[in-house]
Amino acid sequence: MRIEILDGHRNIGGNKIRVVDSENDGFLLDFGLNFSRWGEFFEEFLNPRTGKILHDLLKLEMVPRLNIYRDDLFDGKFEDPVNHAFLFLSHAHADHTGMVGLIDEKIPLLMTGETFAVMRASVYTSNSNVLTQLGGKKRRRVSDKDLENGIREDLTVSPGNSKSAERLTRRVSFPKEVELNDDSTVVDMNSLWKNELFVEPVYHSVIGAAGLAARVDDLWLAYTGDFRTGPETAEEERYWLDTLGEKRLALSLRTSRFFENLKDKRPLVLIVEGTRVTREENVENTEKDVFENAMRVFRGTKNLILVDFPIRHLERLFTFLKVCMENDRRLVLMPKDYAYLLEMERVEPLWKLTDEERSFVRVYHPGKVTYINLEKDALLRAREEGILLSPEEINLHPEKHTMVAGYWDFPHILDLDERVLNGAVYIHSTSEAYTEEQEIDARRFMNWLRYFNIVPFGIREVNGNIVFTKEFHASGHVSPQGLEKILNELNPDYIVPVHTLNPGWFVERWDERVLLENVIVL
Amino acid sequence: MASREEIFSKVKSIISEKLGVDESQVTEEAKLIDDLGADSLDLVDLVMDFESEFGVKVDDADLEKISTVGDIVSYIEKKLG
Asked: Domain spans of chain A?
């Protein structure tokens, strides 16, 4: 077996890993966007050229030189004899799936149905982007007419509204049956790999996260993706049970089931994430802490509350919905977020809101002219359901509402009265800024809060620096203590740390069992 | 274990920064709302800061009993003890 860490080895994100057996059959583990590398060359208004996107990314060494790309984007061939059986997508975060659009549509995408739902919701509520394209039309070569119009012949162009354009039909595969509502083709997971293969969900900050295990030659190989552990105390488990219910408690227990399934798999090579092993943290927040701190803030104000968290972080949605219910407030989602919720409910009935929960959900009617695909569907559905809320209704009763609104949504608050915004509360309940751009965004965001005298929680400015406090966020990644316990109990034969800045942490504990090379041959 | 003076010193610094008052105003006898001008949200924010700084959990029921800076110092001292 050969393990090639193509990206995401000594950095956080951008995972691209290939596993190849002795017969040159192989598979890929994630195909994410490496934000730090991307930021070295590109920013919001400086991007690779869509008409030569793979040429550009290959030249900048942002994607590996493998025969895995869509033929409408790239017609080159590399000296690489590997047959790619599938690409496993561990979870729908861009640093793991953000370049999946480039992949040859004939290579099946293996993931949970929830991950597919979140990816679809993300793609179909945003402007089209080749990097994340899941379906639609393939690009085409330039025509004579294009040449006449001065377009260079080595570029590819958008097919526009052409009815003759070739469809981009993805092959997708799931560990359990999923009802599709797009034109992807489903491939039986059992047919993907010549040996044993299983995908088991893990608990992470996005619904649908999963790990994979496959038999490769005479070894078992397992890949965790990103994960955190579930409730570690009886008190925390009680919180889940009381707040979210028995069925949803299962969400938090997914990680332990994944590792339980690996116990009898020997010899075992474990590719494992180590995001937090560098961080010095004296506080280990849980979802229960987030709930309790949010309750304090909600009880402390009669003003409008704005909460910032990604809706695909489903237990956070449940947490704030519950807090709203306890405080007789309606949770107001943007149409785009409502689209996410509908997609997730469609794929996994377990996540469906109860009638009581649903009665506390509203959808904001933003001052937008253009709605994209699923976002438009969600808006129209909210109108049909009678839960579409105008800014005026929030102005009338700010004490009855909590808006889910982040940085990109803030222009929409300009429709609210200044009196309502003055003294309103903003709760930052998501991760901190990691990149320089995000820090600039955060600084800009503080201007909004200051201008309207909105009281921030979870984020503050100290001597001109933005500080993210942790009261409203529980990390989606396993703690160093949790990881050490898991690895000691599992006792894998080989450990391959990825998604970490501190591989030495693993070497200190498991020494010669830790494999650090970019290419590992076993 | 931190002494009462050490706890008071940290509490004073947090209150001063959070409420924008001079440290000399933050005496053990000073009332958070009446003397230092804290509102209900300031209290929530302060409590979370104390929890983070001292690694203690402030029970919501106990919060109602806290009126002065000295009450906070005593509460933290007891929790740490």
From this structure: 2-135+170-279+475-521, 287-468
Query: The domain A287-468: what is its CATH number?
Result: 3.40.50.10710
Q: Which CATH class is domain A2-135+170-279+475-521?
A: alpha beta
pLDDT digits (tens, 9 = 90+) for A246-290: 878 887 889 999 999 999 999 999 999 999 997 666 557 888 999
**Known catalytic membership, residue B22:** no
CATH fold for the domain made of B4-80: 1.10.1200
Cβ-nearest to A471 among B40, B41, B48: B48
Which residue pairs, CB below 8 angstroms and at least 24 apart, start in A258-262?
Answer: A258/A200, A258/A201, A258/A202, A258/A210, A258/A211, A258/A224, A258/A227, A259/A486, A259/A489, A259/A490, A261/A198, A261/A200, A261/A213, A262/A213, A262/A220, A262/A222, A262/A490, A262/A492
State whether residue B3 sits within 8 Å of chain A by CB: no
Tell me the domain boundaries of chain B: 4-80
> The complex's ipTM?
0.88
Q: Which DSSP symbol is given to A67?
A: S
Instruction: Give pTM, 2 decimals.
Output: 0.90
Is B19 an interface residue toward A (CB < 8 Å)?
A: no
Instruction: Judge whether A72 and A158 are in contact, CB under 8 Å.
Output: no
